[in-house]
Design goal:
Elements (H helix, E strand, L loop, with lengths): L2 H9 L4 E6 L7 H11 L5 E6 L4 H13 L3 E6 L13 E2 L1 H6 L4 E4 L5 E4 L2 H12 L10 E4 L3 H13 L3 E5 L3 H11 L6 E5 L13 E4 L23 E4 L8 H8 L3 E3 L1 H17 L7 H9 L1
Parallel strand pairs: 1-2, 1-3, 4-6, 7-8, 7-10, 8-9, 10-11, 11-12
Antiparallel strand pairs: 3-5, 5-6
Helix pairs in contact: 2-9, 2-10, 5-6, 5-9
This protein binds 2'-monophosphoadenosine-5'-diphosphate.
2'-monophosphoadenosine-5'-diphosphate binds next to helix 6.
């Protein structure tokens, strides 16, 4: 059986969606959507679909989604988030700005829309973990300038942050991001040097790590939090491990901390609600189930 036949067999005639990537075995998306399906008694299925990283394979995926009546859409992970874009019928404006699609939704007329739920998930997790935090209250610091940083920077600027200090090891990537997301209303994205990251925490209301530093198997993020104001929030989008060395250090100093699992769970809401027509919420129980997966 090829992966499409396997997925159809598993779905057993129910409406379904899947995580599409190469590889997909390690993905936690089936656990997070499976939790909501069960919790809400939804007669649906969420599976895994390995799709090779080439144009032909992506075309096959799109054709499959179009022609299969019960296919509601999919999530996309590495390495497909950008290459899928020209194959879809419509790209939501927020996804177009970020330059990547992680959620595909089949519309009632059968057309395929690409969205990006990473920014939504990031902001929802931040609001949940630090309810009093206000975007307009002061400068924020974002470390990293990769794919995840694009969603985070775009979302924070849209939320009304007055000044965003963007810091990346490779400064040219930060400059590109700054050019793409600087609004026309006078608010600014300041590109700072990687060596100055500790000093740049002065006066910040929020520190976000979007680099892979601190992830299992990677070195810890080396940063001195001494200048970060006590009321500031520290958000690490890494979720393996859940408590990165950065979050452990921030917690020890009494900062409110946001881990990366909240972003993963909240970003899933966008797809689930569109595919299965049911509003869902993130819960402690779901966190446990997804962590155990
Ligand atoms: P993602 O799509 O998850 O954001 P990515 O595009 O590979 O992943 O981005 C990884 C980020 O982590 C980048 O900002 C990268 O910095 P560079 O642009 O300089 O590569 C950052 N990163 C990875 N390893 C790093 C390290 N050892 N030191 C500093 N930054 C690092």
């Amino acid at each position: 059986m090829n992966p499409y036949e396997t997925l159809l067999k598993e779905a057993g005639g129910r409406p379904f969606a899947a995580i599409v990537g190469w590889p997909v075995e390690h993905s936690r998306s089936p656990a997070l959507h499976g939790f909501w399906l069960k919790q809400n008694n939804v007669d649906g299925y969420y599976g895994r679909l390995p799709v090779e990283p080439n144009r032909e394979a992506l075309r096959d995926l799109v054709a499959f989604l179009r022609k299969t009546p019960n296919a509601r859409g999919c999530n996309l992970t590495l390495p497909h988030k950008i290459d899928i874009m020209p194959l879809l019928d419509r790209i939501h404006p927020a996804a177009a700005r970020i330059g990547a699609v992680n959620t595909v939704i089949k519309q009632p007329d059968g057309s395929l829309e690409g969205r990006n739920s990473d920014g939504f998930g990031f902001l929802a997790a931040l609001q949940e973990g630090a309810p009093g935090w206000r975007a307009a209250a002061g400068p924020v610091v974002v470390l990293g300038a990769g794919g995840a940083a694009r969603a985070v920077v775009s979302t924070l600027m849209d939320a009304g942050v007055p000044e965003l200090r963007l810091i990346n090891r490779t400064q040219s990537s930060a400059v590109d991001l700054g050019v793409a997301f600087t609004p026309t209303d006078g608010r600014r994205i300041a590109i700072e040097r990687w060596e100055d990251r500790s000093a740049m925490l002065e006066g910040a209301t929020l520190l976000v790590n979007t680099t892979s530093l601190g992830m299992t198997g990677k070195p810890a993020l080396d940063i001195d939090l001494a200048r970060l104001p006590h009321g500031a929030v520290v958000d690490d989008i890494v979720y393996i491990p859940l408590e990165t060395p950065l979050l452990a250090a921030a917690r020890a100093r009494g900062h409110r901390c946001i881990d990366g699992l909240g972003m993963l769970l909240h970003q899933g809401r966008m797809g689930f609600e569109a595919w299965f027509g049911k509003k869902v919420a993130v819960s402690a129980e779901q966190r446990k189930v997804v962590l155990a997966a």
